[in-house]
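tool_call: predict_structure(chain=1)
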Amino acid sequence: MRTFKRLRRHRTPWSFKQLLNPIRKSWKPESPLASKGNRPLQLSFDDQLKALIYFHLEEFSSGRELIQALDQNNFAKECVAPPKGIKKSAFFEAINTRGRDQLEEIFNTLVKEAQGVLPPKYQHLGNLVSIDGSLIDSVFSMDWADYSSTQKKAKVHVGFDLNRGIPKSIFLTDGKHIERPFVDKIIGNGETAVMDRGYQCNKDFDRWQTDDKKFVCRIQQRTTRTVIRKHDLPADGIAFYDAMVRLGSRGLTLAEKEVRLVGYRVDGKDFWIATNRHDLTAEQVAQVYKLRWNVETFFGWWKRHLKVYHLIARSEYGLMVQIVAGLITYLLLAIYCRQEHNEPVSISRVRGLRNKIANEAAELQNQRNERQGKSYKIKQLRRKHHSAKT
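tool_result:
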């Protein structure tokens, strides 16, 4: 299957082609999307993907607004929507029932592509992956999104590559789902999980060390600890504590294995970090944990500027389709901004790209109008010439 075959036509703005080029160049579908009956799909996977990317790129706030643009905006009609247009019912049926496997394939492909394009910023600290969850406000019709008796919420669990500033893995659950089990699913060999206090668990610390999984995790200040040995510290750093300890008290909460505990102070506030990274200084351990805030910055930017949490789907399947499409859009923008401007993603660059696509689309439309005008004049001259002969 040739991806985005319609993008080869002269009517597509160059910048839009350029944005989507990493997918066309790198993705070879393992599971092509096909109709399950005799009738062809009203919305091909290519069209579905382009519509979802367009939704996030243009910061639409609803599916209705997207459908209206696909019907009325010249660029969207020519380059995003199917040749015969798309009905609202067909679009939402597609979002809620198909395309998830293909989108996840594309996401994984783009992660590898982005890792090859974006330079690692903190290579001296190792491969750092921040793990965090983010709640999505839902509606009561979303029965699967359990949270409380008065609220419905879903939760995304994201692994975030701190070296390159990109998401690398995603899971979706109801809002009540605990976060710790996703550490094993997200962290690969040679990677260090960077986590907040919600992931603190002595049994998990023991198991991760047995499985040779690296971690840097903030713990509660009141956590009981037994000091085994202390390490010397320089007097001029932010770290004031560095020791090997056993966490917990006697009984069920006592850890079997010792961990390294680092304490540091910023603006009068103390942070306590448990880790099994013994190759780093205490100052570097503090630096690694401080980088965890980058995932919070990502969530805020992603939600605010790509409108990822403006629901256009209500089913668990459909919401995952929407979320993964939002991640794909972010990765495409990250690759584009690096290749074109040697910069990270920023809203100014996104808006500049959006304006560039609109201007190129208008120019292409003017060129088509001129060609049509010339063609009309030629046909008129031919008719006059034919009439004069007869």
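agent: The chain is about 45% helix and 20% strand. Proceeding to next step.
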